[in-house]
Amino acid sequence: MTLMKRLAKWALIPGIAGLAVASFVAIGTRPSDDAAASSHREAPGIAADPQADATDTYAFIAPDSPDKLTLVGNWIPLQEPAGGPNFYPWATDATYAFSIDSDGDAKRDIAYEFEFYTKVIDKSTFLYATGPITSLNDENFNIRQFYNVYRRDGNSSSRKLIASNLAVPPDNIGPKSTPSYETLATQAIYSLQGGGKVFVGQRDDPFFVDLGGIFDLATIRQLPGNAGGGIDNVAGFNTSSIVLQVPISQVTKCKCDPAPMASGARMTANNNPIVGVWTDTYRQRISVLGSEGGQYNFGDRVKVSRLGNPLVNEVVIPLAKKDAFNASSPAGDGQFASFVLNSDLAAKINAVYAGIVTPIPTTGREDLVTVFLTGIPGLNQPPNVVASEQLRINLSIKPASCGSVMRLGVIAGDNCGFPNGRRLGDDVTDVAVRAVACGYGFNLGPCVDSAPNNLLGDGVNQNDKAFTAGFPYVASPVSGFASPHNTSPVPPIAAGIGAGASVFALLAAGSLIFSKVRRRTAEDVA
Q1: Alpha helix (H) residue ranges in 328-405
Q2: Rounded to 5 degrees, what are φ and ψ at 287?
């Protein structure tokens, strides 16, 4: 009995030791939210509001749907797959939108808007899933989101409801909670009246880039950058996607699917096949926090995020103007033109790689205005264009006419790729860096093409996951259980308990030996 009391007393030590070891292991192996930066968090204001943060916009014609425009908008950046228990819901007090300019005047002609609401089945539990979720109506699917889709034409104050009460699939938690995630995702693909499709839900982030190198003074890990060697710092993170596919005839000025233009034909307003695309996020102007945790929103809608061409707000617009850019519309982009014409990034590349790259002009960069603000003549520049930051795409150029898919798009001779729209696999980082460095592979005044500028890149050439051949095209999200950011081979708490158990065993053995020695000593004395 004395030994049991002694063990009970000393057992506190291995228990505490185990918890201490567990704590240190957990701290040492847990990924830090602050350690990862991203071009997604491009402005001070939106970095504090990830639910509203538009991270990437894509516009392309999919090979399996050549009569439709496919739009992909991603929000809520750098989602650690294991980030429960609430995971990553859409904001119910925001409006997410695709905006389309169908005539090149820098004004929105069409908008598709998405608004969400949440339904909780059992509020007595903290769990997102109370058991395996096998369908979108499964009673184990505890925290559910639904959305409505609206179409707005021009600047009209009214809009048309085109789909309602559509379900968002659960986030990809793991094999016990979401045993067949792709089945759930397939159930969340909806057909729209008039021939369109829509999917809203979590997906793997399709953006690929060496963020660590770019934000460390534009470091290229393995010069000149065209032969790999970069690190994809977005790999293993998820995002929230809205994927919308609509007939081309519903977004063009002619209300038709334009045929390819004959060689030498002149593009006019009546046969313009080019549209500009960007994403917007709106919140109501006034938000009031309640004393018991509630939030109340009032007032008109205010734009808080805007994204067309990738990396423009990130590496072209200066810090003092980034929030203003997010709140603005393309019609007001004249105020930002000087930052495109006079490239700060070009100056940085000249300084960091002096003696390595051919000196890059930093002022008078009309070529960057062409690439990012007007579109390229004869390719994706609409007639009578007003310079503005949009992702422009020529809808008469079909995938079947472009030959092999090239990750560098237009500068590699693939006119179906960036900057004529943007496909999921387009290497926009390499294209943007080469554009700034006058490395197009051809002359685009005032740039004169030269080496090694036409070989620059970040060394990351493709996404970490393959895209799907069919709608919604964006790769399936990484599951929280299988997150590649799990760095400990033994779960931290288990490791701590194991260490504590080892100490306990040693103490127990020592106590037994000590007791036997004391008993034998007592017998010898007697």
Answers
A1: 337-341, 344-352, 366-369
A2: -130, 130
The answer to whether residue 264 scores a pLDDT higher than 50 is: yes
Write the CB contacts of 292 (distance below 8 Å, at least 6 apart in sequence). none
Q: What pLDDT, on the 0 to 100 scale, is given for residue 46?
A: 78
Whether residue 390 contacts residue 277, with contact meaning beta carbons closer than 8 Å, is answered with: yes
- What gap in Å lies between CA 515 and CA 513, rounded to an integer? 5
Among 115, 107, 71, 113, CA closest to 91? 115
Contacts of 142 (CB under 8 A, 6+ apart): 120, 121, 122, 125, 127, 128, 129, 130
Q: Name every residue whose Cβ is closer than 8 Å to that of residue 514 and which is 6 or more positions away in sequence.
A: none
Closest residue by Cα to residue 228 from 419, 435, 455: 455
> What is the phi-psi region of residue 473: left when phi exceeds 0, alpha when psi lies from -120 to 50, beta otherwise?
left
Cis peptide before 310, with omega less than 30 degrees from 0? Answer: no
Alpha carbon distance 25, 5 (integer Å): 31
Name the pairing type of β-strands 196-204 and 190-192: antiparallel
> Model's pTM, two decimal places?
0.84
pLDDT tens for 247-259 read 999 999 999 999 8
Residue 97 three-state SS: strand
How far apart (Å, rounded) are the C-alpha atoms in residues 169 and 137?
Answer: 10
Beta strands in 121-154 (DSSP E): 143-153
**What DSSP string runs through 460-487?**
--S-SSPPPSSTT-SPPPPPSTT-TT--
Please report, as a single letter, which amino acid is at residue 94. Answer: A
CB 68 within 8 A of CB 247: yes
Q: How far apart are the first and last CA of the chain?
A: 22
Provide CB contacts within 8 A for 304, sequence distance 6+: 45, 46, 49, 52, 281, 282, 283, 326, 327
| Calpha distance 486→30 (Å, rounded) | 8
Going by C-alpha positions, the residue among 323, 324, 281 that lies closest to residue 306 is: 281
pLDDT at 42: 61
